[in-house]
Design goal:
Elements (H helix, E strand, L loop, with lengths): L1 H12 L4 H15 L4 H18 L2 E3 L4 H5 L4 E4 L11 E7 L2 E4 L12 E2 L14 H13 L4 E4 L16 E5 L2 H13 L3 H7 L2 E8 L4 E7 L12 H8 L6 E7 L1 H7 E6 L2 E4 L2 H16 L2 E11 L5 H5 L5 E10 L6 H10 L3 E5 L4 H11 L12 E3 H6 L2 H8 L4 E3 L3 H13 L4 E5 L5 H6 L2 E5 L5 H6 L2 E3 L4 H46 L12 H20 L28
């Protein structure tokens, strides 16, 4: 606008007609404005979103493509994002005994088990069998996973991948691992559900950290399927009980509502010594990177009412613990190292046990403690005990947050943003929606995520993989760099046109040259033609440039930085 006014006043000073100078001013405005900029920016963002989709990242909001390039903190869940989400039971803890189990072989790439008698590698003594039976039956019934025969499972090529006698689980991987462990032992969930029909339940929630199901107990042996008779004969049944409730959840959560423990086929009071032993077993398994779940039972002499079901989680009998391994994704460690080299801070925020979270964090490189030291972590309870100022200080150093709730996720996002960070946050549940909305980049899980979480997110991971987030950040940086390239190109071209339009009458005025009728160096139509030829296609070509070599080996640029920063204007 300033240049337009200068040209207009200069022309009038030279005695040019007002109409001619208005035409000159319009021509100058046309030369100054990069008309192709909005179109090229939109195309560059769209092509970036398309490339991200090819790398399994679905962008739901176009502006997120550019924002990804400025991300400084990635807050990620553990299960399924950093790990393979392929749980398998590797250990059981019952009646003061720990049993290590062998993982089934799976040449086809899917978890299959053969019903082949006792658990391979466990070999428990006869005195442990009743407790082991009760643990497997309880874990299988307090469970929403479905056990199906592999005869119905088709390979990618349309071929059956396994013959009769093999099984696979459909549903949550953690629950599926428990169902498969029971199937390996010979306890099949379809038969078990016929014998013990479910009549009510208390669903899992993140506050209680447990779920409970209520079942009818068979009246006599005639109602027991033939395949369950050996289990039944080892006294899984509870005398004088018409109904039974099974509870599954975090061990510390179960200890809050348990009054006794099942040891050597009998109920024993849960004193401080036994609590200590159970927590030691829990911590030992968690320190090995295992997810640990406890199982408890409660016998009932009548079918509980709706109100009684709500209050049924009390005076439970703790039966035993499941230890499940979920190995890290092999590509995640390289992705985490790429994050660090790119100046991005990876943070693990999970609801799992803190020792499990810390073990996985060390495996994938999120934490790198010195030899002989352990990486620090914060639990949800510790977060609640800290003042806001203390939490801000701890959040700068801690990389692992465990046993957290969705409210804690929201608090951490706010703290990181107050510290000047651009935050990407992953989530999959309904309760994660506020955190996904609050984050600069909300990342929902495409496989395990709910519809609510996907609607709240800016980006959806089609493979639920942490490495995909890093790939999307790389594409975001490439798009941002390319936008700067073609903005610099467009402004350089337009500056040349401005110089011609400005210097033509200025030179005439300074040197006393008569312009005659040629008061305008370039007509508006000529300028538009030049812009069409020189602006659009070359700028578009710059918009699809490949990544620079150092794109993931430099810190992220500040989101508050001007697009003209870092020396663009001198060029």
């Amino acid at each position: 606008i300033v240049l337009v006014v200068v040209i207009f006043v200069l022309g009038l000073a030279l005695g040019q007609p007002v109409q001619e100078m208005l035409l000159t001013a319009v021509s100058l405005a046309v030369a100054a404005i990069p008309e192709a900029l909005t179109a090229v920016v939109t195309i560059a963002l769209s092509l970036g979103a398309q490339r991200m989709l090819q790398r399994k990242a679905l962008i739901r909001q176009l502006h997120a493509v550019e924002t990804l390039g400025s991300v400084t903190v990635i807050c990620s869940d553990k299960t399924g994002t950093l790990t393979q989400n392929r749980m398998s039971v590797t250990a059981l803890d019952i009646a003061n005994h720990s049993l290590e189990l062998q993982q089934p072989e799976d040449a086809a790439g899917m978890r299959l088990v053969r019903v082949n008698g006792p658990l391979a590698g466990a070999e428990p003594g006869d005195d442990l069998l009743p407790t082991l039976d009760l643990l497997l039956v309880a874990g299988t019934l307090c469970n929403d996973a479905v056990l199906e025969s592999s005869e119905h499972m088709q390979h990618e090529a349309g071929q059956v991948v396994a013959g009769a006698g093999h099984w696979y689980a459909v549903g949550d991987p953690t629950e599926g691992a428990i169902v498969l462990a029971a199937a390996e032992y010979g306890v099949l969930k379809p038969e078990l559900e016929k014998a013990f029909p479910r009549i009510d339940e208390l669903p899992f929630d993140s506050t209680r950290k447990r779920m409970t199901t209520v079942h009818t107990v068979p009246a006599d042996e005639a109602e027991i399927p033939a395949g369950l008779l050996p289990v039944w004969e080892r006294r899984v049944r509870v005398d004088n009980a018409s109904h039974i409730a099974f509870t599954k959840g975090a061990v510390d959560s179960l200890l809050e509502v348990a009054g006794s423990v099942w040891i050597e086929d009998k109920q024993v009071a849960l004193d401080d010594e036994r609590r200590r032993r159970i927590m030691e077993a829990n911590n030992r398994l968690a320190a090995q990177g295992k997810r640990v779940l406890g199982v408890a039972v409660r016998t009932l002499d009548h079918a509980p009412s709706k109100q009684e079901v709500k209050e049924i989680e009390s005076d439970l009998i703790l039966v035993g613990l499941y230890g499940m391994i979920d190995p890290p994704r092999p590509e995640v460690r390289d992705a985490v190292l790429t994050c660090r080299s790119a100046g991005i801070r990876p943070v693990m925020i999970t609801g799992d046990h803190p020792l499990t979270a810390r073990h996985i964090a060390q495996q994938v490189g999120i934490t790198d403690p010195r030899p002989g030291e352990e990486a620090p972590f914060l639990t949800g309870m510790e977060i609640d005990a800290l003042t806001p100022e203390e939490l801000r200080a701890r959040a700068r150093d801690v990389q692992v947050f465990a046993r957290v709730s969705p409210e804690h996720k929201l608090s951490l996002i706010e703290i990181y943003q107050e510290q000047g960070n651009i935050v990407a946050m992953t989530g999959d549940g309904v309760n994660d929606a506020p955190a996904l909305k609050k984050a600069d980049i909300g990342v929902a899980m495409g496989i395990t995520g709910t519809d609510v979480s996907k609607e709240a997110a800016n980006m959806v991971l089609l493979d639920d993989n942490f490495a995909t987030i890093v790939a999307a950040v790389e594409e975001g940086r490439v798009v941002y760099d390319n936008i700067r390239k073609f903005i610099q190109y467009l402004l350089t071209c337009n500056a040349s046109e401005i110089a011609v339009m400005l210097l033509w009458p200025l030179a005439a005025w300074l040197f006393g040259i008569s312009l005659g009728t040629a008061t305008i160096a370039l007509l508006p139509l000529q300028i538009l033609w030049m812009n069409l030829v020189t602006d659009g296609l070359p700028a578009l070509a710059l918009g699809v440039e490949k990544a620079e070599r150092n794109v993931m080996r430099r810190p992220p640029y500040s989101s508050e930085e001007s697009i003209f920063g870092r020396g663009m204007l001198p060029f």
